[in-house]
Design goal:
This is DUF4218 domain-containing protein. This protein has ten helices and two strands, in the order ααααααααααββ. By secondary structure, the protein is mostly helical. The protein folds into three domains: 45 residues; 38 residues, no CATH class; 111 residues, no CATH class. Strands 1-2 form a two-stranded antiparallel ribbon.
Length: 238
């Protein structure tokens, strides 16, 4: 500790040679006093004020009438003790000992069989209608398809039927082919609408597809309109 107390001023002088004056503030100068404070005050856990300041902040929040500070704190503590004691005799849900889960994670799962709709939760804010601009509808379809593992075989089949070069397409070429098509052929959403009518091996929830978006029939379908809703879920608006 004594060696550190002697070395700190030398180290700061060396720093002043390499850093501009604006770098130095009271925090850098504080290093000079840390070793002396540790020797005089002892371990920091016996002299720091962090937990005391947290406790004082908690007590100040209880004060509603600054004329009767002690009474406000006493009443708040009594109310807290009563609420904790009485909550033991109520149901396990919705009490101070077992608060409601955040972000609606305890909601019932979706009735859909598609994994993309299996995540629990709800929208963070109210939804509002949005009408697609040209090209955004296809982007929305492709974004949904890309996040569905069930669509991987159909992406491969689409590439096999439309990509004629011996070289594998680059990522940009593949995205452009799925979005705009190639050599006058339809893009992926339009191709899939035609493909589902000719192949009988597609699963049930793909047969209920409308407008290029597969959804389970019992949950709902996405039409070519910009806004859509699922009966078992909150309205989803892209």
């Amino acid at each position: 500790m004594e060696k550190l107390e002697k070395d700190v001023p030398v180290l700061i002088c060396k720093m002043e040679k390499n850093f501009p004056p604006g770098f130095f503030n009271p925090m850098q100068h504080l290093l000079v006093h840390l070793a002396y404070e540790a020797k005089v005050g002892g371990p920091v856990q016996f002299r720091w004020m962090f937990h005391i300041e947290r406790a004082l902040k908690y007590l100040r929040a209880m004060v509603g009438n600054k004329v009767r500070v002690e009474g406000c704190i006493a009443e708040a503590f009594i109310l807290k003790e009563i609420s904790y004691f009485s909550s033991v005799y109520f149901a396990e849900k919705h009490n101070v000992n077992a608060p409601t889960m955040r972000y609606n994670v305890d909601e019932e799962p979706s009735a859909s069989d598609l994994p993309i709709f299996q995540s629990t939760g709800a929208s963070a804010s109210a939804s509002s209608p949005y009408y697609f601009k040209p090209g955004e509808r296809v982007s929305a379809y492709l974004y949904m398809y890309a996040n569905m593992k069930e669509m991987d075989p159909y992406f491969k089949e689409f590439q096999r039927q439309n990509w004629t070069s011996k070289k594998q397409p680059r990522s940009k070429q593949l995205d452009k082919m799925r979005r705009d098509g190639i050599d006058g052929k339809p893009n992926f959403p339009d191709w899939f609408k035609i493909y589902k009518l000719t192949v009988k091996s597609i699963k049930t929830w793909f047969i209920y597809q409308r407008g290029g978006c597969p959804l389970e029939g019992t949950v709902g379908t996405m039409s070519m309109d910009s806004a859509f809703a699922l009966p078992h879920l909150k309205p989803l608006v892209l």
